[in-house]
Fold this protein.
Amino acid sequence: MKFKTIISSTVLGAAMLAIPAAHADITLRHALTGEALDLSFAKKGGHTEKFKQFMQTGKNPYNGDEEAVKKGESLYMTGCSGCHGHEAEGKLGPGLADDYWTYPRGLTDQGLFEILFGGANGMMGPQYVNFSTDDMLHIMAFIRHIYKGDPKKAEWLK
Ligand code: HEC
């Protein structure tokens, strides 16, 4: 009887620990300051199921999704290509399709999202002004799709 109680309380304890862990969101930080990003600045409508999934895993669920890549491409052409080039080859801003990163955390989906949402130096302003969080994930899927760098450096695939 005593043994059984210990077992069931252990199982219950593990379950109670597991529930909040499964729902814990990642903490997004500004690429330069390291301060937690305030998602209340986000445009309405971007907190989709896919975005919620991203907030739990730190992985972009749109990666490799053909339709998402297409939508991401059109958003990229509107809001990013003017500075980063149509093939993300670099222009006013650095190339985004190669494996050289000013901010190496951009090689993870979480790091890339942080640069987009919060911005970086100079002309790289916070993109929440123009795009919803779900839009940003689409743009990121496009950027990963056109990657031409060393496959071994593709952190987001690991
Ligand atoms: C007005 C010009 C401008 C626009 C528009 C712009 N960027 Fe940038 N971007 C820059 C500049 C300049 C930098 C370099 C900033 C730095 O080094 O801190 C940069 C840096 C970046 C970086 C970091 C690259 C690295 O090597 O670490 C990423 C990622 C990025 N931009 C993505 C985007 C995306 C995606 C969009 C569209 C949603 C976008 N940018 C829109 C100018 C721009």
The mean pLDDT is 91. Residues 79-80, 82-84, 92-94, 96, 101-103, 106, 112, 115-116, 120-124, 127, 131, 139 surround heme C (CB under 6 Å).
